[in-house]
Amino acid sequence: MMKVFFIVIVSVLGGACNNKGKQVNIRANENDSTDKLAVYTSENGEMNFAIDQARKSFPDFLVVLQDKCEDCERFNVKIRLGFGDNDGEHVWLDSLFLKNSKLYGVLASVPEKVTRVNFGDILEAKKDSLSDWMYIQKGKLAGGFTIKVIYDQLPVLEKKQMEEEFGAMIR
Fold first, then answer.
1. Distances (CA, A) of 101 to 60, 94, 127, 170
2. Nearest-CA neighbor of 76 among 169, 151, 7, 143?
3. Distance (Å, whole) CA 140 – CA 170
4. Gap between the Cα atoms of 134 and 130, Å rounded
5. Does the first or last residue of the chain, that is N or C, have fewer Cβ atoms within 10 Å of its Cβ?
6. pLDDT of 60-91, one tens digit each?
7. How many whole angstroms separate alpha carbon 43 and alpha carbon 19?
8. What residues have CB less than 8 Å from 20, skipping those under 6 apart?
């Protein structure tokens, strides 16, 4: 089973905090040690830009998904689930399907902070909660904008390990 990084984005209250050092904080999920989390603040410009890219290009993803691309596999979308006042946990959905012009998927991992949903739940991927999309085409990642932000911040050896665990070329 492929593991994809969750992203927990914590709002910044009372002062600016940023990732100027560009070191990503990756740690195990408190509820599932086989999952890895990348933790960012809501002020992280690179991650926010990646999310914006994913939203703008989402119609292209839907075309490929609906056209049943012959060389494509592992279609996933990432959505934001809010918790607390302004915090959010970004989770991946797989086994995607369209019903009444709405996109749904199965929650692919165990959420860490959000308790109202569980692994395996079917969730709607609403456009305003979308934070990424991806699929693999001929062994290479398409989309995966937030994954690429994480990847780009890793040392070379960890990049190789991430690609091995991911089962595809990321860049």
1. 15, 17, 12, 30
2. 143
3. 6
4. 12
5. N
6. 999 999 998 889 999 999 999 998 888 889 99
7. 9
8. none
